[in-house]
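--- STAGE predict ---
source: upstream dedup step, 1 unique chain passed
mode: sequence only
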Amino acid sequence: MPVSVLSGNAKKKKKKNGRQTVDVAKAVVLGAVLLVFVVFGVLGNILVILSVLVHHHWRSVTHYFIANLAAADLLLSSAVLPFSATSEALGRWVFGRSFCSVWAALDVLCCTASILSLCVISIDRYLAVSYPLRYPAMATGRRGLTAVAALWGVSAAISVGPLFGWKEPDPEDETVCRITEEPGYALFSALGSFYIPLAIILSMYCRVYMVAKKGTKTLRAGGKSEGVEMEGVILRIHKGSSLQTEKQDDVAETARPKRPSFNLPKLLKFSREEKAAKTLGIVVGCFVLCWLPFFLVLPIGSVFPSYKPSETVFKITFWLGYLNSCINPVIYPCFSREFKKAFHNVLRGGCLRAAVPTIKPQGHVSAPAPSLRMYICVHQRRWRAASADKSLCPGARRS
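--- STAGE serialize ---
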């Protein structure tokens, strides 16, 4: 949880009439750059939240977790980054001692909540992959709300330590707002806010990747899926659909006789899910790249003062951490066509149109898109695949 700070080096700056001077040119340039940084984070995360809220077919636990991640990043971008940017531009803290403590705690709260949201999303995807038939019953709205409340509770517990005295003595100079480097708290916050969630995220994603790789290999080989759980596996991180429809799809898959022949629809579906798993991998990779430097520098510098990095290195690491809260809205549309379409819809004022749900008869399962249906039909005719249910296209012959 990077906190934009000014160390004792701030005292070394030249003073005029008892006041620290400000490099106007540097302040303007740095302030403009950081302002773009802040605005980008705020608008991007608002766009993610609106995309989830106005699309009724995204009313799933997974998308609510994504919205919660965006909410944590939005709170950080709007309530923490402006003060960090101001301090960096001016070269000192100008908001008073009391607000420094509150602001630092809010910083830790938002950053920890953002990281734990990624952790919860990875667990959600693991459950969807490992137990696809039972997942709709497990991923209920109540349990999702409980998970969100729990992650914010843990984040609050980690952030309030310094407010209750678990910190170093405050510096005499009120223009210095310094991050808490008390060794015990530094280790505690690093473990709770980063290393434990990181271990969970990596283990969950490895499981998702192995199942995706195994499932794709099995389908391409044209053999039977090993185990009922592999049928209709759901890997989506961004692909949303109603839980009722997913559940009906899974039940239908278990009721159909398993055929040793090559199953094109399942392969196409699993290919989409594999891409969704790769999107999750990109999110996790960016998370590690942005946060690992800071959570290496902080505990090492606190426990071993002789290895404490320079102020410039420290600032680079904590702004890398801030960057993570701004790049997630970029990852979604770049690697998820569903989010790209949703963003375009929101930006074009299509919120009202998207908010009108499509009512389908009970038990109705949407047919594939015309282009996909035609593609499947060609191969149905070629392979004359036997099927107990009605063919996807009229005129397709059955054996």
